[in-house]
C-alpha cells in the first residue's frame, strides 16, 4: 500500500481507502459480520483510513468501525460527517450547540476521544458562505474533539469556496471517469492551497464495474432504486447523476479500459489514482471479495497519456451532456 499526505495536515493515509455508506445502509441488504471481515481485510492490506457519516444507517457504520478498529485508534484514521441528521438549510443545524451534539454522538459511537477528520456533509452554499459553521469547527478543534475538518461538497463552486477557508484541510468530491469536471480548476487549486482530496462515488454507484445490464433491479432500500432521479438527495450521488440505462450504455463503451488491468473496477479506480492531486479514493463495499478486488487497483498499470486523452474526449462528447443536477 502506498500512502499520500492529506493536504498540509500531519495525516499520511492509504491512497486507497474505503467508504462505509454501503455497510451502514441505503445500499440494500448487508451483513455485519461480512462487513467486519471486509474492514479487517482492508486493514491487513495497509488501509489506514475509513470514511463514514452519522446518517449511514443512523450511526450503524460508525459503530461497525468502532468494533473493527478497537485497539488501533492511533494507527487507523476515521473521517466522519455531520448535518444531514437535521435540516441542512436551517442555520440552527450548524449552531455550536447542534454541531457539538452531533460531534459528541459520533465520538460515542466511534468509541474515540478525537475525530481525525470531521466533515460538513454536503451543506448548501448559503450555509458555507455565512461562515458560522467554520467558527464552530474551529472551537471544536481547540477543544480537542476533532483533529482536522473538511467539507463534502456537491459542486465545483462549493469546493472552490471551501478551499479559500483557512482551516479547511480536506474536500470530499464526486470524482470518477463519469465526473471529470474537477480536473480543470478544483484539483490544481486544492493542491496549491494544501487541501487534501477524497474521491467519492469512484465507481459511479457500480456503473463503472461494467457488471450491470439495463434490466438490473435494486432493492427497495437501495438508493440506486429510491434516488435514481434525485428524489431524496442530490442526483449526483446516484450513478454520478446519469440516468441508469444511459449509464449502462456509456459503461459498455468504456469496456476497453479493462485491457491489461484485469477488470473495469480496478481500471476505474486506477484512473483516479493517476491524478496526483487525489489523496485517497474511497470505494464502498459490502463483501470481502469487493474489498479484495478494489485493493488490486493499486497494482494495475497506470493510464497512458493517450488513454487519458481518449477518456477526456469521451467525457466531453458523450458523458458531460448526460449529467443531471448541479455539479
UniProtKB/TrEMBL annotation:
Annotated NADP-dependent oxidoreductase domain residues: 15-313
Matching InterPro entries: AKR, AKR2_Oxidoreductase, NAD(P)_OxRdtase_dom_sf, NADP_OxRdtase_dom
Name of a matching Pfam family: Aldo_ket_red
PANTHER family assigned: D-THREO-ALDOSE 1-DEHYDROGENASE, NADP-DEPENDENT OXIDOREDUCTASE DOMAIN-CONTAINING PROTEIN
Name of the protein in its database record: Aryl-alcohol dehydrogenase-like predicted oxidoreductase
Phylogenetic lineage: Bacteria, Bacillati, Bacillota, Bacilli, Bacillales
Amino acid at each position: 500500500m502506498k500512502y499520500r499526505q492529506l493536504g498540509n495536515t500531519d495525516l499520511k493515509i492509504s491512497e486507497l481507502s474505503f467508504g462505509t455508506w454501503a455497510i451502514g445502509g441505503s445500499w440494500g441488504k448487508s451483513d455485519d459480520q461480512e462487513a467486519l471481515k471486509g474492514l479487517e481485510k482492508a486493514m491487513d492490506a495497509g488501509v489506514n483510513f475509513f470514511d463514514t457519516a452519522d446518517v449511514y444507517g443512523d450511526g450503524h457504520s460508525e459503530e461497525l468501525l468502532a468494533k473493527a478498529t478497537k485497539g488501533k485508534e492511533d494507527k487507523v484514521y476515521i473521517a466522519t460527517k455531520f448535518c444531514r441528521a437535521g435540516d441542512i438549510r436551517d442555520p440552527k443545524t450548524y449552531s455550536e450547540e447542534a454541531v457539538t451534539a452531533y460531534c459528541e454522538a459520533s465520538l460515542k459511537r466511534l468509541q474515540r476521544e478525537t475525530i481525525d477528520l470531521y466533515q460538513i456533509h454536503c451543506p448548501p452554499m448559503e450555509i458555507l458562505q455565512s461562515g458560522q459553521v467554520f467558527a464552530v469547527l474551529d472551537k471544536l478543534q481547540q477543544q480537542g474533539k476533532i483533529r482536522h475538518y473538511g467539507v463534502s461538497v456537491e459542486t465545483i463552486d462549493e469546493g472552490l469556496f471551501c478551499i479559500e477557508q483557512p482551516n479547511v484541510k480536506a474536500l470530499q468530491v464526486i470524482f470518477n471517469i463519469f465526473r471529470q469536471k474537477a480536473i480543470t480548476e478544483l484539483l490544481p487549486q486544492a493542491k496549491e492551497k494544501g487541501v487534501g482530496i477524497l474521491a467519492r462515488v469512484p465507481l459511479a454507484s457500480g456503473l463503472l464495474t461494467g457488471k450491470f445490464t439495463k434490466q438490473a433491479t435494486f432493492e427497495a432500500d437501495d438508493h440506486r432504486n429510491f434516488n435514481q432521479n434525485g428524489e431524496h438527495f442530490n442526483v449526483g450521488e446516484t450513478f454520478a447523476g446519469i440516468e441508469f440505462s444511459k449509464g449502462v450504455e456509456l459503461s459498455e463503451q468504456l469496456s476497453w479500459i479493462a485491457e491489461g488491468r484485469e477488470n473495469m473496477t480496478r481500471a476505474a479506480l486506477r484512473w483516479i489514482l493517476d491524478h496526483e492531486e487525489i489523496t485517497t479514493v474511497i470505494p464502498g463495499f459490502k463483501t470481502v471479495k469487493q474489498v479484495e478486488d478494489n485493493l488490486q487497483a493499486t497494482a494495475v498499470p497506470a493510464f497512458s497519456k493517450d488513454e487519458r486523452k481518449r477518456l477526456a474526449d469521451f467525457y466531453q462528447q458523450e458523458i458531460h451532456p448526460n449529467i443531471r443536477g448541479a455539479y
